Amino acid sequence: MKNINDEERFIFKRMAEGDKEAFRFFFEKYYIDLCNFVNIYLNDPAMAEDIVQDVYVYFWNKKENIYIETSIKSYLLKASKNKSLNYLRNEKVRSGIQDRLAKESETSYEIPEVQEDNHRLQKIIREAVESLPEKCREIFILSKEKNLTYKEIAEELGLSVKTVENQMGNALKKLREFLKPYYDDLFILFLIAFFC
Please, what's the b/e burial string for 36-70 (b: 16 or more CB within 10 A of its CB; e: otherwise)? Predict the structure, then answer.
């Protein structure tokens, strides 16, 4: 560990061996500085604290495998920065998805053709499920509409869990084949992903 002073090298070694007081030393020494640093990126003190706490949890859990190139503070600053940037990226993606869904929802209420299209797609999906062999259909409905686990379905129908798994596999395969002509439709694609 280059550029790390003897005191911190000794304390870090103790922490790596499981000494919680050594960990407390680094927590108390750098926590406030790290929170202030993260808050520069987030402008959200509460979230900054959450992120710094996550960094410290990682620091403790991975203590035996961490390699410090410069100093403990530099390591924690870099880890905090990376976690902050990841958080901001995820928030941007989440915000974009929420905006898009909100617009689509508004559009579906404003344009009758979209509502009709959704009804048509729901009808196609119902037809696909109805086309399944009786046992496949029964197991599929118990799983997807009633949210039962494979074990619960097996107990209810007096089957083995393996049989339920096989029947679900058959059901999904047949549904994919039935719905294949509609794969270009985003709504159908979403449902296929959900089923699988």
Answer: ebbbebbeeeebbbbbbeebbeebeeebeebebee
In single-letter form, the type of residue at position 66 comes to: I
> Biggest alpha carbon distance in the chain?
73
| Joined tokens for residue 163 | 């049989």
| pLDDT tens digit sequence for 6-17 | 888 899 999 999
What is the extent of the structural domain holding 125?
111-195
Q: Based on the domain organization, do 137 and 169 belong to the same domain?
A: yes
Report the predicted TM-score, pTM, of the whole model to 2 decimal places: 0.47
Whole-angstrom distance, CA of residue 63 vs CA of residue 77: 16
Please report whether residue 44 resides in a domain.
yes
Residues 6+ apart with CB under 8 A from 69: 1, 2, 75
Same domain membership, residue 74 and residue 28: yes
